[in-house]
Amino acid sequence: MWLKITGGLILVGSTAYMGHLASVDLERRxxxxxxxxxxxxxxxxxIAFGATPLDMALKRVxxxxxxxxxTFFETAASALRGDTRTTGPEAFTAAxxxxxxxxxxxxxxxxxxxxxxFSIGVSDVKDQVRHVRLAEERLKVIEEKVxxxxxxxxxxxxxxxLFGGLxxxxxxx
Length: 173
Description:
Elements: H1 2-50, H2 54-64, H3 68-82, H4 88-102, H5 107-117, H6 125-172
Helix pairs in contact: 1-2, 1-3, 1-6, 2-3, 3-4, 4-5, 5-6
């Protein structure tokens, strides 16, 4: 009997933790989108008004934001500094690949940044600013959708994890 109760408690605890992890992933994605959007705002300023070289601009952006977005911009800046033959699009693409593996970046954000990567550092200032603003606007729409998803589903995942585990534990006992 004690073995069943112990197993049930472990089951409830583990499913509650799984629900918590699912909700944390959603919240991390929202933080990532917000960080990317604010990072692009800083990048736009650096390009338009600072006339800063791209590697230095990306480094400043990484210092201005935090979390996964900072890592993304730092990776792009490092790729540009590491090899003088690396172009802006190549550095951005390398950072995107790294972010895709290590952060909660979603497909819509990936597509926005991927589209931006083709124009960053290879066109004139006006064109780059236009592309960055477009990416900012698209990320703002994505941010609103993700925020709504977090609002709806984060609590739901936690509750489902807990009560799903309770239901399974009761079925076992």
